[in-house]
Amino acid sequence: MRVTVSRKAHFNAAHRLYRKDWSMEKNDLVFGKCNNPNYHGHNYELIVSVTGEIDQETGFVMDVKILSDLIKEHIENAFDHKNLNLDVPDFDNLNPTAENIAVVIWNKLRNYIKDSLDLEVVLYETPRNFVTYKGN
């Protein structure tokens, strides 16, 4: 009997979508206003879901308090009120698109969640734009 437990969190962060190796014109063409040299921000909504068998001893797939603490420590503390391009080393050489942010979050959390459990990250950049990452 596989069950999914989820935890919702949020963080506010600024970013700029651009490639250092492209001209300003090409960056503008591909990324539009998201290439603003002065950055722009989002109120990100994050849903982290863990799926697995219910532990017969505890009744949990995973203790949601532990999941909450992992998200707070490794994601919210690292990303909230930060400029992703300038303040978060994960994006030193990685364009902080919603897709890449979701993968970075998944990779950060995967290290702390048992291999027997499936992990899914859903990241809302806006109420209408979101990405989902479930691992490779």
From TrEMBL:
SUPFAM superfamilies named in the record: Tetrahydrobiopterin biosynthesis enzymes-like
Residues bound to Zn(2+): H15, H40, H42
Keyword hit for 4Fe-4S: no
Catalytic residue positions: C34 (proton acceptor), H81 (charge relay system), E125 (charge relay system)
Pathway: Purine metabolism; 7-cyano-7-deazaguanine biosynthesis
Keyword Metal-binding: yes
Name of protein: 6-carboxy-5,6,7,8-tetrahydropterin synthase
